[in-house]
Amino acid sequence: MNYFVHESSYIDENVQIGDNTKIWHFCHIQSGARIGRNCTLGQNVNVSNHVKIGDNCKIQNNVSLYEGVELEDGVFCGPSMVFTNDLTPRAEYPKGSAGYKPTLVRRGATIGANATIVCSHELGEYCMIAAGAVVTTDVKPYALMAGVPARQTGWVCRCGNILDNRLHCDKCGREYEKTDKERIRFVVCSSAI
Questions:
Q1: How far is residue 192's CA from residue 117's CA, in Å, rounded to a whole number?
Q2: What is the pLDDT of residues 53-109, one digit of tens each?
Q3: Range of the domain at 138
Q4: Are residues 149 and 173 in the same domain?
């Protein structure tokens, strides 16, 4: 076993956990879940059946990743943020996994503390969701989203810094340009990172 699991946590059968991953207090990893290398799962994290978590992800305390959620590499989930997997839940009329809607979180995305991600959406690579935001739509790569419901308020660099009006990062020197689809893409880095 090349990973760490605290003695208070439960790991079901048929689970894959990558090297150097750390699973802390009171977590539950359910059957069919796949967790990549070098991940950290804080206290009281639930990973439901068949959830996929890429390499180098950080999932803070009190986060539940419900069936249908997939995190690519390098995703950060802030404390007590929420994923959903059913758009019309009823306790008296359960749909089961056939009714779950998927959520895909692309590489390097950040989801702030207490944010809510409504299912059936994709969060673009390196986007940043502000603390407390409620995401009800797809999110563009590098977009900064805030509010209830969440709206785009700017762009963020791969390093996490908010880009200026020229789409330049004054922290790391990366530069971006707009594409014809109201998206941005990385162009060049003008200084050493």
A1: 35
A2: 999 999 999 999 999 999 999 999 999 999 999 999 999 999 899 999 999 999 999
A3: 1-156
A4: no
